[in-house]
Amino acid sequence: MTIIPKSRFYLSLILYMFVWCQRTLAQSDCPSEDLLVYSPFKPWFSFYQGSSQRCWSAAICLFQAADEARKQQFSATALIMGLLPLTLKDIAWPERRLVPVSHRLPVLAEILVRALSLEPVEVHGKNEAEKRTMTESWLTIHSPSLADWVWNLEQKRILFYVAGSTLSLLLTYAALVLVEVYSKRSSLGCIYPAFILTWYIVALLPATIHTLLSKLRHSKQKRKAKGILEANLNIVTADTPMTPHPNDVESAGAIVSVISEPSSYPRKTHSTPLGARDIKNQNITLADPRTLSQNGQNKSLTRSQIASAVQGAEEWWIVQLVWAIYYIAGTLVFTSIMAVTVIELFVWVMTGFAVTGASKLLALLLCMSFEVTGESRPRFIQQEGSTSQLKDTINKR
Fold first, then answer.
1. Considering the entire predicted model, what is its pTM?
2. Hey, what's the signal peptide range on this chain (predicted)?
3. Measuring CA to CA, how many Å separate 36 from each of 70, 240, 349, 378?
């Protein structure tokens, strides 16, 4: 029988005592299991004092104390949390997130509107009257109550509502921070209390890229369309001594959202405006309300209209990639909030609804602030009639 040397025996005993003390201290450092496992809206500083690094200690103790059923609940709530950025922030309102405008917004306003999850779409017409008519009638058909309220607001009142919506948005952002502070924080960085708000603010980056590349794409398409039109008009002039119709020349500058081949342009002039004639089966970004049937449904949906629910669907691939990375990051951030209970999930969803409503209302009012609204706007549509009368009026045009 081998006798263990005294030095080795004492060393093993000291090591065992050290490990035992460490485990005992670690277990005693955790709060009571009954208090910790189900503790909605109790952040780490309600259990620990001192360094913010103790945030990690609270999370570790919580998951150690949770049984398998509770861990399964945490996994389920994390899955629902991951759906929030894809459903609430990007919800299709008022109609596939599109807001028709008679003129393209200034760059900063366009960036803000896109960062707030709406998509401003310029309506093209042969004159200002037709642009304003199509802008007002499109929103009226898709959201009658909303359009009736917005288009009857005076400009001063719209600015007042913009200020009120901005304040509401800031309050909802503050609510996001409070909910995250009083939750179990994000596993991406427990000591940083505003991951969700940061993700909402970072939307300015993909919105900026989207806006700048969109302006570049539109300018290139406009130059291309003008060049093709001039070439075809020269061919028409050389073949037949006919004078181009004024509407064809006037609508040359309005062809911005059309991607056409030279063969799609006519070989002779017509009385129909070129903008209305050539964009019928092309990739337009907004439906002309005159193509609506009696029940208000579009007779033919183009590919871009169907895909318009995707952010940047009509833009270059780099824009879609940037938005995809942004929403993937949002899913990661939302699912990283640790140990979300059912009541906390309900509060997160309600807060998300509030942020979504405030964001989209502010974006819509920003778009309307650049339109002619209220009593001063031209009356091209009968406003005393019902929605069905409005649709009949548009269909007769």
1. 0.68
2. 1-26
3. 12, 87, 23, 64
User: Which element (helix H / strand E) includes 179?
Assistant: helix 155-181
Residue 73 counted as domain residue: no
Which segments of 240-293 does DSSP mark as H helices, in order? 246-250, 274-278
For residue 32, the one-letter residue type is S
Residue-wise over 67-101: b if at least 16 C-beta within 10 A, else e? eeebeebbeebbebbbebbeebbbeebbbbbbbbb
Element (H, E) at 120: strand 119-122
First to last CA, the chain: 109
Residue 314 within any structural domain of the chain = yes
Label residue 153 exposed, middle or buried (CB < 10 Å: 0-12, 13-18, 19+).
middle
What does the buried/exposed string (b/e) look like for 168-184 if buried means 16 or more CB atoms within 10 Å of the residue's CB? bbeebbebbeebbebbb
pLDDT (tens place) for every residue of the chain, 397 residues total: 455 566 666 676 666 665 555 554 444 578 777 777 788 888 888 888 777 788 888 888 888 888 888 889 898 999 999 988 888 876 655 556 777 787 788 899 999 999 998 888 877 655 555 666 666 666 665 566 666 677 777 778 888 889 999 999 999 999 999 999 998 889 898 889 899 999 999 999 999 998 998 888 877 777 777 777 777 777 766 655 555 555 554 444 444 344 333 333 333 344 333 333 343 333 433 444 434 333 444 433 344 443 454 566 677 788 889 998 999 999 999 999 998 989 999 999 999 999 998 998 898 888 888 776 655 555 544 444 444 444 444 444 3
Domain assignment of residue 346, given as a range: 98-396
Domain count, the chain: 1
- Domain assignment present for 331: yes
The owner of tokens 């539109």 is 218
Say how far apart CA 164 and CA 369 lie, in whole Å: 14
Q: 379 is written with which tokens? A: 């009356």
Note whether residue 62 is domain-resident: no
